[in-house]
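ok trying this again, last paste got cut off
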Amino acid sequence: MTWWRPAVAGWGAICASIGLARFAYVPLFPAMVAAGWVDGGGGGLLGAANLAGYLAGVMAGRGLARRVGVPRALDAGMALAALSFAACAVQGGLAWFCLWRALAGVAGGFLMALSGPSVQASVPAEARGLAGGMVMAGAGTGVMLAGLLVPLLLGGGLAMAWLGLSVAVLVIWLVVRRWWPDPAVVPAPGAGQGVPRAVRLLLAYGLSGAGMVAPMVYLADLAVRGRGLAVTSGSLVWVLFGAGAVAGTLLGGRIAGRIGGRRALPAWMAVQVVALAAALLPWWPALLLAAPLGGFAGVGATAVTLVAAREVAGVQASIVWVRATAGYAIAQAGTAFALAALFAATAESHAAVFGAGLLLSVAALLAAWIGRQG
């Protein structure tokens, strides 16, 4: 099997589960509020529920792969992602949506925990940086696809939008599943096989995730209800976020492969700080800067961290990656619930949630700079 086939399969898994099942909700957020399916606070809560489910999926993904094998675990994640979209076509109330958005997060967690390390273990060492960037570029590709599809699908109503996204996941699954990577699952380390703690790397990545909650949940709503743009314009802002994410992951994998992930990470964190600062500017054209830079840094940091995990842990990289992904998910879930409460308590102030994101991003930059050599 050539290296690009498992990389394309990993790309498809991340595109469908993260780019669509997780991030397609962002351009749907203002449409859900406008249609009365949820209010602003409830919309933020759905984003938080998705992140909580993501944490559960990350924690369970490696155990599922050990029991049924990596390909079947990847199939399970894709099936759950498609089902969660279809279920959200039913206007079942806030609790119903919370359940299915949480299960969409579980699917994303499964696939994020397994795709990157499985592809890294299935390609030659010299191709790992490029393959890792390609896999994680699936998130940005899915974001762009969501930003283009959602305005078209909304012409048929919210139910049609949710069902159309379910079909998109199914199509991607059917195309890429023939190339699922199938490496041996790395066993838990025994005596004398300690896994590096990589505390500074995990801290920087977790803080990056916490700082990115604001744009990853509220960016399209900021464009539409905060800056007065049309729903279609909000979706186009999200397309820019996705375009930045594709560039950030492809470039991140390549640069990290050359100079090292820990050395590259501070640059991505600096871009994230600029993105959050731009989102706080009161003029809508600033979103044309904030959106692509946010995607470049916030999603691209994943490809950089994936390479860094391989640097610090070698064959046990999948364990460090699961820890990093779990820490990221914990940080995002906790921050998402906190920001949902803050958003509701401040009469839906976008400045409050994006200001909090900026502070967390500055902390991520400091942690990445301190940890760049170790």
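PB: full thing came through this time. The CA atoms of residues 150 and 302 lie 25 Å apart.
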